Amino acid sequence: TILLRRRPSTPGVITLHNIVPFFSQGLQLILLMLFEIYLFLCVLQVNCVTFPLPGEGPEQQLLKPNDWSYCDYFWADKKDPQGGACIPGIEVLIQKQLKGKTLQKEMAEFIHERIKIEEEYAKNLSKLSFSPLAAQEEGTLGEAWTQLKKSLHDEAEVHLKFSNKLHSEVEKPLLAFRGEHFKKDLKKYDHHIADLRKQLASKYAGVEKARKALADRQKDLEVKTHQLDVKAHKHEEDIKKARRKSTQAGDDLMRSLDFYNQTQCKWFEEMVTSSMELEKMEVERIEFIQTHLRQYTTLRHETDMFNQSTVEPVDQLLQSVDPGKDRELWVRENKTGEVRPVDLDI
Amino acid sequence: TILLRRRPSTPGVITLHNIVPFFSQGLQLILLMLFEIYLFLCVLQVNCVTFPLPGEGPEQQLLKPNDWSYCDYFWADKKDPQGGACIPGIEVLIQKQLKGKTLQKEMAEFIHERIKIEEEYAKNLSKLSFSPLAAQEEGTLGEAWTQLKKSLHDEAEVHLKFSNKLHSEVEKPLLAFRGEHFKKDLKKYDHHIADLRKQLASKYAGVEKARKALADRQKDLEVKTHQLDVKAHKHEEDIKKARRKSTQAGDDLMRSLDFYNQTQCKWFEEMVTSSMELEKMEVERIEFIQTHLRQYTTLRHETDMFNQSTVEPVDQLLQSVDPGKDRELWVRENKTGEVRPVDLDI
């Protein structure tokens, strides 16, 4: 398990809680201003996600160095080239899986076309092997010829077997891999993370509101402290009241900041786990396709080998073709008479 | 060179020439009768060809023993099963060659059909190899997939090469073997021998006529010799005259016998040479077809081997499919941002 995130210990930034008790109101105000300025110097919000400014903050190590892991490269949203809405990083990963599913289906389609070609070829070979052409050839030559014609039927069988295995061992698995629910499952990641992003946005709005409220309170306190032309005791009361309210506003800001950061943290963790699952999916997809394309080449090799064997019996019978034997055979059947004529004599 | 024929030295048959001078007319007549009777006992005419009677005459050795040579088995005419005209032995041999020519043409036809099947198969494979299916697959998997598609085009090339070679090295030679003049050349044998058979028939008719004439003369002489009731001197004259005429008729018979035997001898020799040429033709035909069917199987073997090689590059690229590499490639191109979010802090 990897360390999910490292809190940037931004040096010099001390959270209000620590300092409020110890400083005079004037210093408090100045510090508060400084914090806000610092805040907008060292971080950057993009679509309500907070990133460190380039160069600012500590060096970030990749979560899985040298691994090109999805979990390290899809934190930002992708600018839509059409300048339309931005696409969240997770969406890019999901699109990749959806495209993968389509490609896998197209490969199955390709194999299906090959199957049809093989079936057609086998059909034609088998048909020709039954043709009566030169069926009357006799003797050893006739036997060789008959075997040659038969060998076409054997070839047809080989190609038919090839197409059947292509169907059951390549096309079908490619079609079956990642069934109907696959797209729904992917959408789940999408929705879940989109939902967290919405929460993040509202929490961010909360922070902004609280920050604004604090600023107002602080101005009000400042004004009050510099009013000298009012009755002293009444004046004291006002200042106390204003100070209480501004402290209150500071605490509110702290609270909404925590809400925001908690939500961002949830989103972060969800991003890491989801992207790593999508990464695993892609590895599975590639290995699955690799395995089944290997099965295709194995079947092709088998086919060539079986094809070889269909010719061998023809070769053997061609070798034992013997014109002498064939003549004997034919003469035995067709001879008209072996008694030679003799001279006629008185 | 084989001894073409062996004159049957039929024991006890002595030709007229030898005996006429030495015997009295009475004995002459008796001998003549005996000869004719003997003649019809020890030989047998079939369609004007003279064969020894089964069992009669000397044992005949085959011209080419243990060779089943055409020249030994087609002396008689073949009875037409439809009971129509007889078919001469030579005709049976010629029919065999004509049938061979047809079979050879049918084999070429069969090969042509095979060529068409291969062309169709190659066309379909090549077409499919150019299909855009799953063309968007990326990285090492994309390369393997692209090579797999390309391999179909290579296969198509292999089958196209096969069909081209089938055309030039098997179909064409089978069609070209024994060109247009072949049937004419065969007819020549036919006509030549048929012509000799016609001559044989007319010569045989001549023999019959001469034999009849001799018989008449002999009867006439016999009658004359037993007439006693006529004047002696006139009687002597008649007998002399009759004897001259019968001797004359005997010589005519001898001459027509010689003509007949000479013609039969010509026919015999023509039969032997022709049948042996036809036998050579059949050996050539069988060996020619054997050679070209062997060429067919050789091309088939080549095709299977070349086919094997089309799959190998696919296998190699499939082995180097690497999900990690593909992820790096894709992430480099599609990453949205590697800077991780940080806590928002006052």
From TrEMBL, chains A, B:
Domain of life: Eukaryota
GO biological-process terms attached to the record: clathrin coat assembly; clathrin-dependent endocytosis; neuron projection morphogenesis
CDD domains associated with the record: F-BAR_GAS7 (cd07649)
Ranges for domain F-BAR: 68-326
Pfam family, one: WW_FCH_linker
Record's keyword terms, sorted: Coiled coil, Membrane, Transmembrane, Transmembrane helix
GO cellular component: clathrin-coated pit; clathrin-coated vesicle; plasma membrane
Transmembrane regions listed in the UniProt entry: 20-41
UniProt cross-references to Gene3D superfamilies, sorted A to Z: Arfaptin homology (AH) domain/BAR domain (1.20.1270.60)
SMART domains: FCH
InterPro entries for this protein: AH/BAR_dom_sf, F_BAR_dom, FCH_dom, GAS7_F-BAR
Protein name, as recorded: Growth arrest-specific 7a
Lineage start: Eukaryota, Metazoa, Chordata, Craniata, Vertebrata
